[in-house]
Amino acid sequence: MTDAILLGPPGAGKGTQARVLCNRYGYRQIATGDLLREHRAGGTDLGKSADAYMQRGDLVPDELIVRMVERELSGDRRVLFDGFPRTIAQAEALDALLSARGRGDAAALVLEIDRSLLEERLIGRWTNPRTGRVYHEKFAPPRVAGIDDDDGGPLVQREDDRPDTVRHRLAVYEAQTRPLVDYYASSGRLAKIDAGRPIDSVSKEIREALHLAEPSTA
Ligand code: ADP
Ligand code: ADP
């Protein structure tokens, strides 16, 4: 059982690909952005502490994030980390948490994409706030605009997907998260994925990098 990490800038397709991996290959998704949004909606102390950071597009402090992830880490299923770790301190904490539980090192995949594609992806993103499923008004539209295909509930646009916040989040990624590419490359557990291609092509490349079987067409 190998856990896996999806790295990449906002809009690269981490959530989209996580959904494919969980549906087809039985990974359990731990998406720190989704968990934080649930805490905010539920008005928990963590949600209140995280709110201002998220609105600005800054990272929530490491100790809050690591504690939240630790509470989620149980069970035997392999885990797919989506949007975590985002700093070197978080990556070191994750290595320690996994090894304390007798799990091997997680495999890291970085979704690489030209920056010019990201703004359009984020500005056209629509999300089901209850399930975290994402759509795109042009690239992955729901059957009926504004309505989730699965549960018929309303889709919303995230407040932090506004152009000014998007630009700040991309700068935060470059400064704080990009160094993780070297962190994982230097321990020989990084695969680079070309995330600028259509969703199915990206899924295929990820499947090959993780040595997963081709889904049956039956
Ligand atoms: P995206 O999918 O666009 O990359 P996320 O939904 O993962 O964005 O994250 C939204 C916001 O939640 C981030 O801008 C940040 O404020 C906070 N956040 C999510 N994950 C982390 C993390 N691992 N460390 C710090 N902050 C995080
Ligand atoms: P992340 O979790 O990395 O922030 P998402 O999975 O939420 O990224 O994708 C951002 C937006 O781009 C969503 O609207 C999604 O539907 C769309 N998207 C994801 N992957 C692709 C792709 N390969 N081609 C075109 N659009 C995509």
What attributes characterize this protein structure?
single chain; 218 residues; alpha/beta; Rossmann fold; two-stranded antiparallel ribbon; 7 strands; binds adenosine-5'-diphosphate
Topology (SSEs and partners):
Elements: E1 4-7, H1 14-25, E2 28-31, H2 32-42, H3 45-56, H4 62-72, E3 79-82, H5 88-100, E4 107-112, H6 115-123, E5 125-127, E6 134-136, H7 163-177, H8 179-186, E7 190-194, H9 199-209
Parallel strand pairs: 1-3, 1-4, 2-3, 4-7
Antiparallel strand pairs: 5-6
Bound molecules: adenosine-5'-diphosphate (2 copies).
The site of one adenosine-5'-diphosphate has 19 residues, from helix 1, helix 2 and helix 3.
What characteristic shape results from the CA principal axes? Answer: globular
Strand content bin:
5-15%
Number of helices: 9
Which class of the domain at 4-113 and 172-209 in CATH terms? Alpha Beta
Oligomer: single chain
**Average predicted local confidence, pLDDT:** 95
How does this structure look, described?
It is a single chain. The protein is an alpha/beta fold. It has a domain of 148 residues: Rossmann fold (3-Layer(aba) Sandwich). The strands form two sheets. A five-stranded parallel beta sheet has the order 2-3-1-4-7, sandwiched between helices. A two-stranded antiparallel ribbon has the order 5-6. A hairpin with a 6-residue loop joins strand 5 and strand 6. Helix 4 runs parallel beside helix 5. The structure holds adenosine-5'-diphosphate (2 copies).
